[in-house]
Design a protein that fits this description.
Blueprint: H1 3-12, E1 16-20, E2 26-29, H2 31-36, H3 65-78, E3 82-88, E4 94-104, E5 108-117, H4 119-168, H5 175-207, E6 215-217, H6 219-231, E7 244-248, E8 255-257, H7 259-276, E9 282-289, E10 293-300, H8 308-313, E11 315-317, E12 325-327, H9 328-341, E13 345-350, E14 355-362
Parallel strand pairs: 7-9
Antiparallel strand pairs: 1-2, 1-5, 3-4, 4-5, 6-8, 9-10, 10-14, 11-12, 13-14
Helix pairs in contact: 4-5, 5-9, 6-7, 7-9
Amino acid sequence: MDPDGLMRIIESLNVAVLVEDEHRRVVLANGAFVELFSLGIRPERLRGAAAGASGSPLARLYLDAGDVERRTEAAIRHARPLRGEEIPLIDGRVLERDFVPVMLDGSHLGFLWIFRDITAQAQIRRGLEERARMLAELSALKTEFIGVISHELRTPLASINTFAPLLEDGTALSGDERTAATVAIRRNADRMQALVADLILLAKLESRELAIDDDPIDVPALVRDAVAALRGGTAGAPDTRSVELRLELPDGPRLTGDAALLSQLVETAVGVLVAGSAAGAEVVVRAQPLDTRWRLTVETSAADAATTERLLSTRLPHPDADGESRTAALAVMLARAIAARHGGELSIQAGQPGATVMVDLPIRG
C-alpha cells in the first residue's frame, strides 16, 4: 500500500497513531496523535522529526521522560509487541500505549505506536484499588479490634463472675471478705467503664463525629511534656529509669490540632516502646519538621518491643481515669485514630531486634 493510502487509514482511526522508521524518525502520525499531545501542528509536519524521548517534544509532557525512554528502548530492542503499557503525563492524564514492530517497504524495520487516553479508566481503577485496600485494612482492624477488646474484657469479667456468686451466698464470706469482694467488683466495674469510654472515643474519632480543637501546638514542647509525664512516675506508667532516653527536638513550625489528644498520642508512641524495652536499652525520640508535616520517630534496640503479644500484655496509664490503665494494644489503636483524625498516620515496625514507632502529622495553616 502506498504511504498516502496508509495515511488515510491511520487518519480515520480514533486512536493516536505514530509510525517510526528504524532510526526512530517519524514516518506517519495522525490528527488524533497531534491532538492528544496538544502539538498544535498538522500531522504531516512531524515527518522526519526525531521521535526519541530525549529529542521529542513529547518528552516535556511525560511525568518521567527517562522512564518512558528506557521502556521504549527495551520494547524496540526485544522487537516484541506490547499491549496496555501505561504512561502518566505531567498534567495528570494517563495514556495507554501499544507497540508493534512492522516492516516498512518490505525490508526496513519500523515501529508502530498506538496511544489512548485512559485517564477516566485509570481513576476508576485507582479508586477501586484504594477501596479494596481500605476494605482489607478495615478487615484487619476489625480482627485486631475484636482481639484487643476480648483481651481487655476478659480479666474484669472473670473477676466479677468470681466474686458476685460469693456475695449472693450470705454465709460464704466473712465481713472482711465481703468488703474485699465488693471492692474488687467495684474496681473491675470502673475498669470496664473506662474501657467503654475508650470505645466511644475510638468510634467518634473514626467516624469523625468528635470535634477537635484547633490549638497551636509547639511540637518539641509537646514531646518534652509527654516524656516528662512518663518520667513523673504516674501509677502504671512505664519505668523510664530503666532505659536511656535521648531526645532530638529541633525547632520548627507549629501544628494546629487538639492538644489533649495529641499529648495522648505522643505519650503512647513513647510509652509503648519504653515499656517494651529491655533494661539499659536506648530509646531515641526524634521530631523532624519536613516540608509539609512533622515526623515523630521513636526507636529502640530492645528485642521483641511492640510485637502483638507485647502490646496485649503491656499496660499504660489511662490519661482520663486516675489509677486505671489500658493495654498498649488499645492505646495504639486510639493513637492511630487520633493521628488519622488530624490527617496523619501512625505506624509501627518491629525489627529483629528493636522497634520503631513513626507518626506523621500534617502542618496545617
